[in-house]
Amino acid sequence: MDKVEAFGNYLGTGSDAEVWFKALTPSPKASWAVFVAAFEDRWPPIVVVEKTKAEYERELIEHLLPDTEVGTKTTLYDRECWMHEAWATKALQLASRAGIAAGTSVIWQVRGVIKDLLKADEYTDWAAFTTEVKGLKGNRVLEKKEQHSRQEHKVNMLCADVARL
């Protein structure tokens, strides 16, 4: 069986493509190149719109690690991992696509809730930043989150006490 006939076996029953394929004369089925030309004439390839570097940078700035997800687990590439690891992986991908991975642009804008857990205040590039984020121990992140919640609760209680004065 040649490629053209094999192609026909993968078409959905009753689909427009199957109806078109069955109606084809032998001429367009003579070779793969002729068939592809006929197919693309009937169904022109769709041009995928690529995001601009600015759009990737905007997406990166909006890619924040919500406080509610700190210390939780998720699945990345079919493996369970801490949410901050998955977040860092996507952040580095976005920085690369935005063309800023070799620098430090907008790191300070996306550090968000994990900034208190990081050792460095400045980084040489996005790889260094995301490597440190990925290196955070999940249990330590969870402990810090709980500690932050307790401190926030104390502050709220103190504010309530002051308000009653």
Overview of this structure, please?
This protein is mostly helical and 165 residues long. 56% of the residues lie in helices and 5% in strands. The protein contains eight helices and two strands, in the order H-H-H-H-E-E-H-H-H-H. The chain has helices at 3-9, 16-23, 32-42, 53-62, 83-98, 107-110, 126-135, 138-164, and strands at residues 73-76, 79-82. Strands 1-2 form a two-stranded antiparallel ribbon. The longest helix is centred in the last third of the chain and has 27 residues, at 138-164. The radius of gyration is 27 Å and the shape is elongated. The relative contact order is 0.09. The mean pLDDT is 89.
How would you sum up this structure in a few lines?
The chain is mostly helical and 165 residues long. The protein contains 8 helices and 2 strands, in the order H-H-H-H-E-E-H-H-H-H.
Radius of gyration: 27 Å
Structural class: mainly alpha
Chain-averaged pLDDT: 89
**End-to-end Cα distance:** 88 Å
Q: Which percent bin holds the helix content?
A: 55-70%
Order of helices and strands: HHHHEEHHHH
What's the total number of strands?
2
Q: How is the main sheet built?
A: 2 strands, antiparallel
Give the amount of beta strand, in percent: under 5%
Low-confidence stretches: none
Outline: elongated
Strand order of the largest sheet: 1-2
Please report the number of helical segments. 8
